[in-house]
Amino acid sequence: LKVAERPARTGRNPSTGAAIEIAAKKVIKFVPAKVLTDSINK
Question: What residues have CB less than 8 Å from 7, skipping those under 6 apart?
Answer without folding.
Answer: 24
